[in-house]
Design brief:
- With 249 residues, the chain is α+β, with helices and mostly antiparallel strands.
- The protein contains eight helices and nine strands.
- The protein has two domains: 110 residues, no CATH class; 111 residues, no CATH class.
- Strand 8 and strand 9 form a beta hairpin.
- Helix 5 packs antiparallel against helix 8.
- The longest helix has 23 residues.
Length: 249
């Protein structure tokens, strides 16, 4: 294909799904662009090795597709997903990830060109966390829901990301009993779990920093959330989450 060629993600899924390279029982990958072994190790194999087994079991079959760039489709072509591009699209059309389902498998497209590993990891973990929240049953995530209820009861301020902050502010301003199980409450809980799970997965794979600021969740609350997620989604043997665990792993 020429450097200016584009193909829809849907077309790729239909015609190239047999070329996926297995990493483990739940994850396989394919790179549309040439990738060096060290890059594949950092982008694919290291995250796969650090992923909690229960998370992979919940997601079942994830097909990771590494592409140069992703471009928003036109309205008439939305059903076939974004465009896999080999040249950078205009900033207004650029995407960094996309998810498609095909024959019971989930295809996760990541745009990796001109993006450093940390940013690509952030995108990858955000998508995996969102997929987990979408597919996990209510009983499995109830411990995290109770942590959020307790934070709300104790008027803990702040959130991990702006998207969670905005939903929390809506909940606090629109609902007198902020712990009541409503659509708005669930929207906030889901986003809080996506943001926290993304941080958790990043922490299992590599070092993480949480930006401080007036909107940031207190560190003790962040740690409590992470500890609950570790109980829900235990890391693989030998993988540590907190620095003090490194002496025993």
């Amino acid at each position: 294909m020429g450097s200016d060629s584009k193909v829809s993600a849907g077309s790729f899924v239909r015609h190239c799904n047999g070329q996926m390279i297995p990493v483990n029982r739940s994850l396989s990958y394919f790179s549309v662009i040439p990738m060096e072994g060290a890059d594949l190790q950092r982008l694919v194999y290291d995250p796969a090795a650090a992923a909690p087994p229960k998370l992979l079991e919940t997601l079942r079959q994830v097909r990771l597709v590494l592409v140069g760039y992703l471009e928003k489709p036109t309205k008439k072509d939305e059903a076939d997903g974004p465009l896999v591009a080999f040249q950078a699209p205009a900033a207004s059309k650029q995407l960094y990830s996309a998810v498609m389902d095909y024959e019971g498998e989930t295809y996760l497209f990541l745009a990796v060109k001109d993006s450093d590993v940390a940013d690509t990891h952030d995108t990858l973990y955000d998508e995996l966390a969102a997929l987990f929240v979408e597919h996990a049953d209510e009983k499995a995530i109830e411990p995290f829901v109770e942590v959020i209820r307790d934070e709300l009861r104790h008027k803990v301020r702040g959130e991990l990301e702006d998207r969670g902050w905005a939903l929390k502010e809506q909940l606090l301003s629109r609902q007198s009993d902020v712990t009541r199980d409503t659509k708005l409450f669930r929207s906030y809980v889901d986003q809080a779990m996506i943001d926290t799970l993304s941080l958790y997965l990043h922490g299992l794979c590599c070092d993480i920093d949480v930006d401080s600021g007036p909107r940031q969740l207190p560190s003790r609350s962040i740690r409590r959330r992470l500890e609950v997620l570790r109980e829900m989604l235990a890391p693989p043997s030998g993988v540590a989450l907190f620095p003090e665990e490194l002496t025993t792993h």
